Automatic annotation (TrEMBL):
Pathway: Alkaloid biosynthesis; nicotine biosynthesis. InterPro entries: BBE, FAD-bd_PCMH, FAD-bd_PCMH-like_sf, FAD-bd_PCMH_sub1, FAD-bd_PCMH_sub2, Oxid_FAD_bind_N. Its cofactor is FAD. Keywords: Alkaloid metabolism, FAD, Flavoprotein, Glycoprotein, Signal. It comes from Anisodus tanguticus. This is FAD-binding PCMH-type domain-containing protein. Gene3D superfamilies: 3.30.465.10, 3.40.462.20, Uridine Diphospho-n-acetylenolpyruvylglucosamine Reductase, domain 2. Residues 18-192 form the FAD-binding PCMH-type domain.
């Protein structure tokens, strides 16, 4: 069984002969070249899309319905790690894997709280919040940003002081490329132990997966903040699990504990004995090795794989997200399993990531990302397919939309919240040509940002009144311009 979430990178849905192509792709070598590109595009009325690594679920960083230029930041990837003050400057074209590699070069006891897929670019990841397996201990990547360098719509370069606290607030979770082009981030590194413990336990329906997932909802958000256990739900042929040849659902419990096996086992025995974790299920390793473990690399793989920008697999896919605030009943979970037995779910996956810990302590208004206390866990739904053609795509997208509709009673309401780094144009869109009203943008905006959306609108209207930086789900300016 392959981990289709970690393989979900550049979306092959947007790699067809019909996909709109850019007029030109620009790969700036320096900050001054970025400035010139911005000024040239503004002068000529050219629309730009900004790409850091291409992990963009709806293709908004490299596709547009109006004539456009791609500004690809692949050459802006310098990373300077300062062990003494536990910080790093990371240029926006760097990948998460490159960042982790550079940190590990300098220290065995420093890390960073970001995602598990190493080919994701920090530019988009950080600007949308950026969560990973240490979020219960340290929050999001965006919670740990202390400075930034940004080019505005007039070609001026700002740091935190010159851009002001409103704009600095907005770019840490307010979504990529709404306010300017971020050149680099300064991040606060976090402490990690020399050894962490990981495990992966798979449970099928025949092994009480439903009851275990049900119980997980109560305990995972309340575990000690050093413990993170996510669940991946897939459909498998049970012969793969050593059983008779029939279809079943498997729940994979995948964990990292910021400590040793001897500390972990009593916590699991006291809080989640039903899972049946044994010493032999656990592996102690360094934090940087755990990055490879969660990314799906085999044990003993060279750390050099973190420097590769090539995604190991690409698919056509569609993703959606939800937040769960009350545990879903066993009957509710069984309804999910029924949908996973349908034909379109061969390569579908549901991922459940627990909150609690540090995420409960950070105020909703601290940065634009608002999904904090009150959320037990976040869900990502993903469906992949390999065949070409619109009919195939429509069948799979309809399947995930039916799953999303089924989940309505079990997830957050007023608004039904979503995570911006799992872009989903189903929940609402701007007008890519002409003016987008506050009322129109609010349809999707409050789902990503809740009440923080109004402040983001205010910042956008102030710093980019002409709406130069825009896409189908960028924060719009409320100031009307000529021709709109």
């Amino acid at each position: 069984m392959r981990n289709v979430v970690d393989g979900a990178g550049q979306n092959l849905r947007f790699n067809t002969t019909e996909t709109p192509k850019p007029l030109v792709i620009v790969t700036p070598m320096s900050e001054s070249e970025v400035q010139r590109v911005i000024l040239c595009a503004k002068k000529t009325g050219m629309h730009i899309r900004i790409r850091s690594a291409g992990h963009d679920y709806e293709g908004l960083s490299y596709v547009s319905e109006v004539p456009f230029v791609i500004v690809d930041l692949i050459n802006l990837r310098t990373i300077n790690v300062n062990v003494n003050d536990k910080s790093a400057w990371v240029e926006a074209g760097s990948t998460i894997g490159e960042l982790y590699y550079k940190i590990a070069e300098k220290s065995k006891t420093l890390g960073f709280t970001a995602g598990v897929c190493p080919t994701v670019g920090v530019g988009g990841h950080f600007s949308g919040g950026g969560y990973g397996v240490m979020l219960r201990k340290y929050g999001l990547a965006a919670d740990n940003i202390v400075d930034a360098r940004l080019v505005d719509a007039n070609g001026r370069i700002h740091d935190r002081v010159s851009m002001g606290e409103d704009l600095f607030w907005a770019i840490r979770g307010g979504g990529g490329n709404s306010f300017g082009l971020v050149l680099a981030w300064k991040i606060k590194l976090v402490d990690v132990p020399e050894k962490v413990t990981v495990f992966k336990l798979k449970k099928t329906l025949e092994q009480n997966a439903t009851k275990l997932v049900h119980k997980w909802q109560y305990v995972a958000p309340r575990f000690h903040e050093d413990l993170f256990i996510r669940i991946l739900i897939n459909r498998v042929n049970s012969s793969e699990e050593g059983d008779d040849n029939k279809l079943t659902i498997v729940a994979s419990f995948i964990s990292i504990f910021l400590g040793g096996i001897d500390q972990l086992l009593p916590i699991m025995q006291d809080n989640f004995p039903e899972l049946g974790l044994r010493r032999e299920d656990c592996i102690e390793m360094s934090w940087i090795e755990s990055i490879l473990y969660f990314a799906g690399f085999p044990r003993g793989e060279s750390l050099d794989v973190l420097l590769s920008r090539v995604q190991r697999s690409k698919h056509h896919f569609k993703s959606k997200s939800d937040y769960v605030q009350q545990p879903i009943s066993e009957g509710g979970l069984e309804g999910i399993w029924r949908l996973f037995f349908e034909d379109e779910a061969v390569e579908a996956q549901l991922e459940m990531n627990p909150y609690g810990g540090k995420m409960d302590e950070i105020e909703e208004s601290s940065i634009p990302f608002p999904h904090r206390a009150g959320n037990l866990y976040k869900i990502e739904y993903l469906v992949c397919w390999d065949e070409e053609g619109e009919e195939v795509a429509e069948r799979h997208i309809n399947w995930i939309r039916r799953l999303y509709f089924y989940m309505t009673p079990f997830v957050s309401k007023f608004p039904r919240a979503a995570y911006i780094n799992y872009r989903d144009l189903d929940i609402g869109m701007n007008n890519i040509k002409g003016y987008t009203s506050y009322v129109q943008a609010k349809v999707w905006g409050i789902k990503y940002f809740k009440t923080n959306f109004d402040r983001l609108i205010h910042v956008k209207t102030k710093v980019d009144p002409s709406n130069f930086f825009r896409n189908e789900q960028s924060i719009p300016s409320l100031r009307k311009n000529k021709g709109e």
